[in-house]
Amino acid sequence: MSLITRKNPAGNGAGVRDRAVAAAQQAVPAAKNAIPKAKQQAGPLARNASTAIRQSAEDAAAWARPRAEDVAAWARPHVDDARAWAAPRLERSGVAVQESIAPAISDAMITAARKLDVKPARRRRRWAGVLTTVTLLAAAASAAAAVLLRRKPVEFAYTQDGGPDEMRAEADPAAGPGLAEANGSQPDTEASSKSEQS
């Protein structure tokens, strides 16, 4: 017969239960008596513990204070020496970064910013087109007027009473003396005869 498969007798479980109940009945009054005793003993123990902790902390502070002052007195000149040693090296490093690395980083950032920037749309200059058109029309009109005036020039002649009289020159060369008087030029024969009269 195997030890693992051995069955316990049915009456054996009831005995275990009875013993557990009896032990619990004895433990209840003992626990009830232990609570007031623990309360009575806990108050003075807590007071004693807080006093002991406070006293230990004061002793530790009294022991550490002069040692901390000694360490601070020793460290002060050493810290100043370390700072005096590190300051020029740090400054040289800063200058080196500023002169060598910073420009490269700055150029890279500027290039990236220009690549990222949205190019503004070109504004259409309508007024420039209108002004150009008006100027070209005015030039064409003045050129046409000049061509027309060269073909048929206007002559100004003065009448007997001194008022202006406007006449158009004919294609006939005989009408030339009127035009000559208007623009102040005289034919050679007339100019010489007028100069003799004066």
Give structural notes.
It is built from four helices and two strands; from the N terminus they run ααββαα. It is mainly alpha-helical and 198 residues long. The protein has a domain at 138-187. Mean pLDDT is 75; it is low at 168-175. The longest helix has 107 residues, at 10-116. A two-stranded antiparallel ribbon has the order 1-2. It is elongated.
Can you describe this structure in just a few lines?
The chain has a two-stranded antiparallel sheet. With 198 residues, it is mainly alpha-helical.
Annotation keywords:
single chain, two-stranded antiparallel sheet, 2 strands, elongated, 4 helices, 198 residues, mainly alpha
What's the N-to-C terminus distance? Answer: 177 Å
**Shape, please?**
elongated
Helix percent reads over 70%
Question: Proportion of β residues?
Answer: 5-15%
SS class: mainly alpha
Extended strand count:
2
Radius of gyration: 64 Å
The overall pLDDT average reads 75
- What's the order of the H and E elements? HHEEHH
Q: Order of strands in the sheet with the most strands?
A: 1-2
The number of helical runs is 4
Query: Which spans of ≥5 residues are poorly predicted at pLDDT below 50?
Result: 168-175
The biggest sheet amounts to: 2 strands, antiparallel
